[in-house]
Every structure is written in structure tokens, then in C-alpha cells.
Amino acid sequence: MTFSMYDTSVPALKRMLNNLAAILVKAAEHAASKKIDPGVFINARLFPDMFPLSRQVQIATDQAKGCAARLAGVDIPGFADNEATFDELQARIAKTIAFLDSFKAQQIDGSEERDIVLQIHERKLEFKGQAYLLNWVLPNFYFHVTTAYNILRHHGVEIGKKDFLGG
Q: Which of 22, 45, 56, 155 is deepest in the core (most CB within 10 A)?
């Protein structure tokens, strides 16, 4: 069996983004049923030096769209990072999924040896495509989706492993 960069990236990213969207629906419903200002959840953190829920979703979507774009060698769409409501976070996830849907396997397969360079603050990180996907994107993406889940679970939203993993 051949390793497919597309099959290892786009379907997995889309699945988890859809799961994250479903979790956010449950969080919005929980806020409404308990008469809690949704901003409490949007701005919630697990620890003071960690990013809030909104930023966790932003970073997860950035990882997903950046992955597909870099592996395919196309421009990454810019998002404003100004989401402050559940509806705005849902719209961001939907835009990201739509962007992922625009790729065909032929655009990403064969990118295992593509040079990928990331500039993160003062640090320059260099990868080959497969190492970028497996050692950078997927761990970071799952970290931020998991942290979003954990923030909501910690704050009383009734979600569980089935919600994280999806149907």
C-alpha cells in the first residue's frame, strides 16, 4: 500500500474540524440552557498562560488550511482571527472545510519531499512535506482541538470521547 499525503491530511483534518464544530454546537446549547453568557466559554482557558477557546479554534483551523496549502504549493488564505461568538467560530471552521474541499488528491500526493519553511516569530523551521505533516501539523492540530474540547468539558459542557472522535 502506498502512503498518500492527501489521505493522511485532508480527510483527517476535515473529520476533526466537523467534530469540533459539533462540540461547539453543544457548547452553545449548554450556554443557552444554563443562561451562561457564551463569552464565558469563548474566552475560557484551562490555565492562565494558555490560549482561550477562541484561539484554540483559530490555531486548529490555521494548521488545517496551512497544511493543505503548503503541501499543494498554493497560497494560504488569511483569516482575521477576530472571532468572538460561537457563530463566528462555526463560520471559520466552515470556511476552512470549504478550503480543504477545494483540493484534489493529485495536488497533495507526491508532496513528501516538498520543502516547507515556517517562520515562527524569530525561528525558521524547515521540513520536508511528510515530516511537516506527521511531525508538525498533525500533533499541533490535535493538540489545539483537544485543548478546545478540554476547555469546554472542564467548564461543564456535557461532551465525551464520542463527541471528540465523531460518528
A: 56
